[in-house]
Amino acid sequence: xxxELTLLEQIKSGKIWDFPGGIHPPEQKxxxxxxxxxxxxxxxxxxxxxxxxxxxxxxxxxVGDQVLKGQPLxxxxxxxxxPVHAPVSGIVKHIGxxxxxxxxxxxxxxxxxxADGLDAAITPAPMSNWQQLDKAEVAxxxxxxxxxxLGGAAFPTYVKxxxxxxxxxxxxxxxECEPYITADDVLMRYHSDDIVAGIKILQHLVGAKAVLVGIxxxxxxxxxxxxxxxxxxxxxxxxxxxxxYPSGGEKQLIQVLTNREVPTGGIPADIGIVMxxxxxxxxxxxxxxxxxxxxxxxxxxxxxxxxxxxxLWVPLGTPVRSLLEFVGFAPEKRQKLIMGxxxxxxxxxxxxxxxxxxxxxxxxxxxxxxxxxxxxxACIRCGLCADACPAxxxxxxxQWFAKAxxxxxxxxxxxxxxxxxxxxxxxxxxxxxxxxxxxxGKAEIREEREEKIKSDKAKKRFEExxxxxxxxxxxxxxxxxxxxxxxxxxxxxxxSAKDKIAAALARAKAKKQEPAEPQADEPxxxxxxxxARAKAKKxxxxxxxxxxxxxxxxxxSGGDAQKxxxxxxxARAKAKKxxxxxQQEQADAVNEANAAPEAESAEDAEDAKKAxxxxxxARAKAKKxxQxxQQEQDAEATTGAExxxxxxxxxxxxxRKAxxxxxxAxxxxxxxxxxxxxxxxxxxxxxxxxxxxKSADELRKExxxxxxAxxxxxKLAAEQAGKDKE
Amino acid sequence: MLTILxxxxxxxxxxxxxxxxxxxxxxxxxxxDDPLVDQINDLLPQTQCGQCGYPGCKPYAEAIANGDQxxxxxxxxxxxxRHLADLMGVDAVPLDDAHGEEDVKKVAYIREDECIGCTxxxxxxxxxAIVGAxxxxxxxxxxxxxxxxxxxxxxxxxxxxxxxxxxxxxxWKWQELAIPVKTVNE
Lengths: 726, 186
Prior knowledge:
The complex is a heterodimer of chains A (about 725) and B (about 190). Chain A has about 725 residues and is α/β, with parallel strands linked by helices.
């Protein structure tokens, strides 16, 4: 604690330190720092939606929309995200891809606005009481007004203004160490009051005890202007630092002003420091006090091939071409255009590349001023690069590892602490583009890390998928097994259940039809009658055939092969029984004769058709009764076989019905044995009419029925004869 | 005579003791999985594409651990071969052409209006990067797609394309400096 205070005291006493390495390239600042900042007007602006580090906002305007200056074009998302605003009033001409302000020159989403020249702006929304407001609210204003670090990285300012750690010192970076660039210099000269106002807002937001403004000693006008502006403020200290490149680097300036080092992979907030650029301070002041969003910035347009190098207020999104036209531009053969300074800038491939929040300079050098880099020679291990490196790295070693793509070694030698200042390349006598190698190395390592993350994810997903497939397979097998068991059980159960149901139904029907059998309902009656008839006929026929030693072919003529066999078997069995029952029949006939008149009278009361049918049934049953008398005596198996034989004859639809009906018929037959007597004549009619009524149902059934009817007719005749004899 | 007997007995006793120790150690410190396989598997790109001839990256890792060549992985390319060579202590060899060539990174793209919703590609995808349901349009989750190609073959209507990953300023990287070409007049 003691040492901390001492350090703060030391800082306050005006002591400055030094950082290792550094170079002294020609400054070339006097080219552009002579005049005031000129406002430039443009016809068309290309506003990229991505002008900052972090997530891109969502475009909220549409093609054809009329926009005012300062109107937001995108809505920021959650997290690190900033909106962009229309820098001019006009009409949105196009929303699509346009070359972006990036070394790659690749296209990015851009809103193209055609200026109407009116420069109609949105109503300013000043936040005059910012000192009383909640800090988060003020920070949110910085977010909504698109304030990003204007020093070069375009880091969202509102994020920096909400540090998670206590901040001791706020450092304002007004060093502007890169040659040629004078944007901050002139801004301080002419707008020092605004900058100081912005500094006070920032200091309030981060709660810093002291503010250090670092300015290189090659900007005396700016220094005096800033000293004047901050004279009434005790917390703001102007620190003049010796001119050395790259003292404007964040880590280097911290070292110079506080003698503290930002740890590897850390940020200044880790050691209680926040740094902001002077341009950002100006933008903050505008956003809070003037209530104007960030829509323009100061850009230095300089170089030998520019007629009048100067600083311009440039609407964000202005293409480089418009700037050059404004300042006067005499291009030479293979003219180089650089966005940024000579040390850290990048070549512009397309002069429609727009100025963005991080663009501080457009450099148009002549070939003698900034000659093309010579051919790379072999490294002579002179070690000048190591002496020049401000981050105390070993550029030479890094170079070997970068060339060998030894990423492990690169990381071991702290490649990621390289700030890409270009000091090593500048001093290299072999003209080795060292920084280029580091950039490639860094990009490759980053890509490798991303791929590693992706492959780990893919591995996880693959393994989970495999596990899932395995699980599903097992579950499926289990399910199949269970289903098979269930089916097996169900089958067993079902059979017995079916049998039971059929039996129960049969019983129920039998009971029901006992009192009023002839009046049985029509459709069932028809079926039952048909079946009953069929059976009766069959049995009779077979019995006869057996007796007369007729061929079985006759009996099975109406049926199919399967039926034939079964029928034949049954027929034989029945025939035997029929013989035995010949005597019983006679006895039965007496009983039936008694019952017949009753049945007939009941039928007469009803309609003719029903009567006929009922009669047919009655008769059929009576006939059947003859056989069933034996059959009942016989094992049940025989009756089962009989039932089955009827099945193939019937359609699938009526299969169930047929079974039930057969069961009913059987049941009735039993009763008929005891109670009924067939009436011959109506029966013969019924036999004929039944097939007719059925014909509507099914052809097949009809045929069968017809065959049966014929057979019955014959038998009836025989019966009649027999009865007559009786 | 007695000396010989004693020495034999002593040696036998030692043999029994050491045998017991070794036997215990082999049970106590048994290594379940081959850690080398996991290390190799970590280096493989996990596309699960099967171009190496094995049904996935893990099986190939096992094969490498058992002495198979390290140059059968086209998606991993030279970088993977280099890493494998480092790990296995063998020389880095060029990629085996028989298994394919190193290509730019691609992802699958389903032409959605042509998709009939047969789910065949979903079944083929080793990393579940295709969403969709029977008789519903399918689409590829680009972030999860490993570009393995396996979904292209099963598609009955050929509506899947392998498209190179678009370059944006986010995934762009600085290029190697072009080697200056000089015309030499003889």
